[in-house]
C-alpha cells in the first residue's frame, strides 16, 4: 500500500480546477497519465507508484475503497468534494454528496464533522 502516494495524488488533483476537470472527465486515463509523468526520457521512476487496488479506486472514484486503503480522511473529503463539484449547485446536490460520503466511510471508521 502506498498511502503517501494516494494522499499526494488527491492533493495534486484538488489544488487545481483544471486538474479536477481533467480527472472528473476521465479518471482512469488521468491516473495513468499522472503516473507516467513521473518519468524522464528514460522511463518512469519510482516516485509515483500506486497499487492496482489504488488505481482501480481512483479510476472508479470509489471513496469507500480509498478510505479503506488508507486515504487521509481530511484529504479524501476535499478531494471528493472537488471532483464532484460539477454535479451540484449551491442550492442543490451538496448535501447529497455529504450523505454519500458519510455512507461510504461510516462502516469503516468515524466520519469527521461536515456541516
TrEMBL record:
SUPFAM superfamilies: LigA subunit of an aromatic-ring-opening dioxygenase LigAB. InterPro entries: LigA_sf. This is Extradiol ring-cleavage dioxygenase LigAB LigA subunit domain-containing protein. It comes from Agromyces allii.
Amino acid at each position: 500500500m502506498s498511502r503517501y502516494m494516494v494522499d499526494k495524488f488527491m492533493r495534486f488533483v484538488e489544488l487545481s480546477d483544471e486538474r479536477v476537470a481533467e480527472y472528473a472527465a476521465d479518471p482512469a486515463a488521468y491516473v495513468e497519465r499522472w503516473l507516467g509523468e513521473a518519468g524522464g526520457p528514460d522511463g518512469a521512476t519510482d516516485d509515483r507508484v500506486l497499487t492496482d487496488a489504488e488505481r482501480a479506486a481512483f479510476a472508479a472514484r470509489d471513496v469507500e475503497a480509498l478510505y479503506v486503503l488508507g486515504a487521509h480522511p481530511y484529504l479524501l473529503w476535499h478531494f471528493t468534494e472537488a471532483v464532484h463539484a460539477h454535479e451540484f449547485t449551491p442550492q442543490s446536490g451538496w448535501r447529497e454528496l455529504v450523505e454519500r460520503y458519510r455512507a461510504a466511510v461510516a462502516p469503516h471508521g468515524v466520519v469527521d464533522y461536515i456541516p
